[in-house]
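Trying the structure run again after the queue cleared.
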Amino acid sequence: MIIKCAIIDDEPLASGLLKSYVTKTPYLELKGEYNSALQAMKELREDPVNLIFLDIQMPELSGMEFAKVLPKKTRIIFTTAFPQYAIEGFRVNALDYLLKPVSYEDFLAATDKALEWFTKMQKQDIYTRDRIIYVKSDYRLLRISLDDILYVEGLKDYARFFLKNGENVQTLISMKKLDDFLPRPEFLRTHRSYIVHMSAIQAVEHNRIVFGEIYIPVTDNYKDEVQSYLDDHTLI
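Done. C-alpha coordinates:
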Protein backbone atom coordinates (compact mmCIF):
# COMPACT_ATOMS: atom_id res chain seq x y z
CA MET A 1 0.00 0.00 0.00
CA ILE A 2 0.98 3.66 -0.41
CA ILE A 3 0.97 5.88 2.69
CA LYS A 4 0.15 9.53 2.03
CA CYS A 5 2.24 11.68 4.35
CA ALA A 6 3.12 15.26 5.27
CA ILE A 7 6.05 16.93 7.01
CA ILE A 8 5.54 19.72 9.56
CA ASP A 9 8.80 21.24 10.82
CA ASP A 10 9.95 24.83 11.21
CA GLU A 11 13.61 23.90 10.63
CA PRO A 12 14.37 23.88 6.87
CA LEU A 13 17.34 21.52 7.19
CA ALA A 14 15.39 18.97 9.22
CA SER A 15 12.41 19.23 6.86
CA GLY A 16 14.64 18.82 3.81
CA LEU A 17 16.28 15.74 5.28
CA LEU A 18 12.92 14.11 5.98
CA LYS A 19 11.75 14.99 2.47
CA SER A 20 14.78 13.21 0.98
CA TYR A 21 14.01 10.14 3.11
CA VAL A 22 10.35 10.11 2.04
CA THR A 23 11.33 10.41 -1.63
CA LYS A 24 13.49 7.29 -1.54
CA THR A 25 11.03 5.17 0.46
CA PRO A 26 8.78 3.33 -2.06
CA TYR A 27 5.61 3.08 0.04
CA LEU A 28 5.53 6.79 1.05
CA GLU A 29 3.99 9.62 -0.97
CA LEU A 30 4.62 13.19 0.17
CA LYS A 31 1.47 15.32 -0.08
CA GLY A 32 2.63 18.41 1.78
CA GLU A 33 5.52 20.15 3.52
CA TYR A 34 4.79 22.87 6.09
CA ASN A 35 6.88 25.10 8.34
CA SER A 36 4.19 25.46 11.02
CA ALA A 37 1.24 23.56 12.41
CA LEU A 38 -1.06 26.53 11.79
CA GLN A 39 -0.08 26.58 8.13
CA ALA A 40 -0.85 22.85 7.85
CA MET A 41 -4.09 22.86 9.85
CA LYS A 42 -6.60 24.09 7.26
CA GLU A 43 -5.12 22.16 4.34
CA LEU A 44 -4.82 18.86 6.19
CA ARG A 45 -8.35 19.11 7.56
CA GLU A 46 -9.73 19.50 4.03
CA ASP A 47 -7.42 16.90 2.47
CA PRO A 48 -6.15 14.62 5.28
CA VAL A 49 -3.11 12.39 4.97
CA ASN A 50 -2.41 9.03 6.60
CA LEU A 51 0.83 9.94 8.35
CA ILE A 52 2.48 13.14 9.60
CA PHE A 53 6.14 13.62 10.50
CA LEU A 54 5.60 16.22 13.18
CA ASP A 55 8.10 18.42 15.00
CA ILE A 56 7.19 19.17 18.60
CA GLN A 57 8.75 22.53 19.43
CA MET A 58 7.31 25.06 16.97
CA PRO A 59 6.10 28.66 17.39
CA GLU A 60 2.40 29.52 17.77
CA LEU A 61 1.16 25.92 18.02
CA SER A 62 3.31 23.04 19.24
CA GLY A 63 3.29 19.64 17.58
CA MET A 64 1.88 18.10 20.75
CA GLU A 65 -1.08 20.51 20.75
CA PHE A 66 -1.64 20.00 17.02
CA ALA A 67 -1.64 16.21 17.46
CA LYS A 68 -4.65 16.46 19.78
CA VAL A 69 -6.90 17.99 17.10
CA LEU A 70 -6.01 15.65 14.23
CA PRO A 71 -8.52 13.07 12.92
CA LYS A 72 -8.19 9.72 14.69
CA LYS A 73 -7.14 7.94 11.51
CA THR A 74 -4.20 10.29 10.97
CA ARG A 75 -1.12 8.83 12.63
CA ILE A 76 1.98 10.66 13.82
CA ILE A 77 5.70 10.09 13.95
CA PHE A 78 7.18 12.81 16.13
CA THR A 79 10.55 14.32 15.24
CA THR A 80 12.39 16.39 17.84
CA ALA A 81 15.77 17.16 19.34
CA PHE A 82 14.42 16.76 22.88
CA PRO A 83 14.13 13.18 24.23
CA GLN A 84 12.05 14.24 27.25
CA TYR A 85 8.96 14.43 25.03
CA ALA A 86 8.92 10.72 24.23
CA ILE A 87 6.45 9.63 26.94
CA GLU A 88 4.07 12.53 26.24
CA GLY A 89 4.25 11.68 22.54
CA PHE A 90 2.98 8.17 23.07
CA ARG A 91 0.10 9.53 25.14
CA VAL A 92 -1.31 11.09 21.98
CA ASN A 93 -1.06 7.81 20.10
CA ALA A 94 2.14 8.51 18.18
CA LEU A 95 3.37 5.54 16.17
CA ASP A 96 6.98 6.40 16.89
CA TYR A 97 9.36 9.08 18.06
CA LEU A 98 12.50 10.08 16.13
CA LEU A 99 15.34 12.00 17.73
CA LYS A 100 17.11 14.61 15.56
CA PRO A 101 19.34 14.39 13.65
CA VAL A 102 17.32 11.53 12.18
CA SER A 103 19.22 8.75 10.44
CA TYR A 104 17.63 6.95 7.50
CA GLU A 105 17.96 3.68 9.42
CA ASP A 106 15.81 5.04 12.26
CA PHE A 107 13.42 6.69 9.79
CA LEU A 108 12.94 3.41 7.95
CA ALA A 109 12.33 1.48 11.18
CA ALA A 110 9.62 3.99 12.14
CA THR A 111 7.95 3.99 8.72
CA ASP A 112 8.05 0.18 8.55
CA LYS A 113 6.11 0.24 11.81
CA ALA A 114 3.64 2.67 10.21
CA LEU A 115 3.28 0.42 7.16
CA GLU A 116 2.52 -2.55 9.41
CA TRP A 117 -0.07 -0.51 11.33
CA PHE A 118 -1.86 0.78 8.21
CA THR A 119 -1.84 -2.67 6.60
CA LYS A 120 -3.45 -4.09 9.73
CA MET A 121 -6.08 -1.33 9.77
CA GLN A 122 -6.81 -1.90 6.08
CA LYS A 123 -7.48 -5.59 6.78
CA GLN A 124 -9.67 -4.71 9.75
CA ASP A 125 -11.69 -2.37 7.51
CA ILE A 126 -12.17 -5.20 4.99
CA TYR A 127 -13.31 -7.62 7.70
CA THR A 128 -15.67 -5.03 9.15
CA ARG A 129 -17.14 -4.20 5.74
CA ASP A 130 -17.53 -7.74 4.39
CA ARG A 131 -18.30 -9.37 7.76
CA ILE A 132 -16.50 -12.61 6.78
CA ILE A 133 -13.12 -14.26 7.17
CA TYR A 134 -11.68 -17.43 5.64
CA VAL A 135 -9.58 -19.81 7.76
CA LYS A 136 -7.56 -22.88 6.81
CA SER A 137 -8.81 -26.06 8.46
CA ASP A 138 -8.09 -29.67 7.39
CA TYR A 139 -6.72 -28.62 3.98
CA ARG A 140 -9.79 -26.51 3.26
CA LEU A 141 -10.61 -22.82 3.38
CA LEU A 142 -13.71 -22.39 5.54
CA ARG A 143 -15.87 -19.28 5.45
CA ILE A 144 -16.81 -17.84 8.85
CA SER A 145 -19.19 -14.95 9.34
CA LEU A 146 -18.02 -12.54 12.03
CA ASP A 147 -21.61 -12.42 13.28
CA ASP A 148 -21.55 -16.18 13.95
CA ILE A 149 -18.52 -16.11 16.27
CA LEU A 150 -19.05 -16.32 20.03
CA TYR A 151 -15.40 -16.46 21.09
CA VAL A 152 -11.99 -17.78 20.12
CA GLU A 153 -9.80 -19.98 22.30
CA GLY A 154 -6.02 -20.16 21.84
CA LEU A 155 -4.41 -23.62 21.95
CA LYS A 156 -0.62 -23.18 21.67
CA ASP A 157 -0.09 -22.52 17.92
CA TYR A 158 -3.76 -23.05 17.08
CA ALA A 159 -6.98 -21.12 17.59
CA ARG A 160 -10.47 -22.57 17.86
CA PHE A 161 -13.50 -20.52 16.79
CA PHE A 162 -16.65 -21.32 18.76
CA LEU A 163 -19.77 -20.49 16.73
CA LYS A 164 -23.37 -19.69 17.62
CA ASN A 165 -24.64 -22.90 16.00
CA GLY A 166 -22.58 -24.99 18.44
CA GLU A 167 -19.87 -25.90 15.93
CA ASN A 168 -16.19 -25.04 16.31
CA VAL A 169 -13.42 -24.56 13.75
CA GLN A 170 -9.72 -25.00 14.48
CA THR A 171 -6.98 -23.30 12.48
CA LEU A 172 -3.21 -22.77 12.68
CA ILE A 173 -2.80 -19.15 13.78
CA SER A 174 -1.49 -17.34 16.85
CA MET A 175 -3.76 -15.41 19.21
CA LYS A 176 -1.56 -12.35 18.75
CA LYS A 177 -2.17 -12.34 15.01
CA LEU A 178 -5.90 -12.82 15.52
CA ASP A 179 -5.96 -10.04 18.09
CA ASP A 180 -4.23 -7.75 15.58
CA PHE A 181 -6.65 -8.42 12.74
CA LEU A 182 -10.12 -8.99 14.22
CA PRO A 183 -11.96 -5.64 14.27
CA ARG A 184 -11.92 -3.76 17.56
CA PRO A 185 -13.71 -3.10 19.82
CA GLU A 186 -16.16 -5.68 18.45
CA PHE A 187 -13.64 -8.40 19.35
CA LEU A 188 -11.59 -7.97 22.51
CA ARG A 189 -8.93 -10.07 24.20
CA THR A 190 -10.07 -10.97 27.72
CA HIS A 191 -7.30 -13.43 28.59
CA ARG A 192 -4.12 -14.60 26.88
CA SER A 193 -6.11 -17.63 25.64
CA TYR A 194 -9.44 -15.96 24.75
CA ILE A 195 -10.84 -13.37 22.35
CA VAL A 196 -14.54 -12.60 22.80
CA HIS A 197 -17.15 -11.28 20.37
CA MET A 198 -18.44 -8.54 22.65
CA SER A 199 -21.88 -8.16 21.05
CA ALA A 200 -22.52 -11.89 21.58
CA ILE A 201 -22.05 -11.78 25.36
CA GLN A 202 -25.03 -13.10 27.34
CA ALA A 203 -23.94 -11.96 30.80
CA VAL A 204 -20.94 -10.87 32.86
CA GLU A 205 -20.38 -11.92 36.45
CA HIS A 206 -17.41 -11.93 38.82
CA ASN A 207 -14.86 -10.98 36.12
CA ARG A 208 -16.16 -13.74 33.87
CA ILE A 209 -18.03 -13.57 30.58
CA VAL A 210 -20.93 -16.01 30.36
CA PHE A 211 -21.99 -18.01 27.30
CA GLY A 212 -24.61 -20.42 28.66
CA GLU A 213 -22.61 -22.87 30.77
CA ILE A 214 -19.26 -21.56 29.48
CA TYR A 215 -17.35 -18.99 31.55
CA ILE A 216 -14.57 -16.94 29.91
CA PRO A 217 -12.17 -15.27 32.37
CA VAL A 218 -11.28 -11.58 32.22
CA THR A 219 -7.76 -11.13 33.59
CA ASP A 220 -6.08 -7.99 34.90
CA ASN A 221 -4.10 -7.36 31.69
CA TYR A 222 -7.29 -6.94 29.67
CA LYS A 223 -9.97 -5.88 32.13
CA ASP A 224 -9.69 -2.09 31.55
CA GLU A 225 -10.52 -2.33 27.84
CA VAL A 226 -13.31 -4.83 28.47
CA GLN A 227 -14.77 -2.67 31.25
CA SER A 228 -14.59 0.41 29.04
CA TYR A 229 -16.62 -1.40 26.36
CA LEU A 230 -19.18 -2.56 28.93
CA ASP A 231 -19.46 0.93 30.43
CA ASP A 232 -20.12 2.41 26.98
CA HIS A 233 -22.99 -0.06 26.45
CA THR A 234 -24.56 -0.05 29.93
CA LEU A 235 -27.79 1.80 30.67
CA ILE A 236 -27.54 3.94 33.77
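The first helix runs from residue 12 to 23. Worth checking whether this holds up in the mutant runs.
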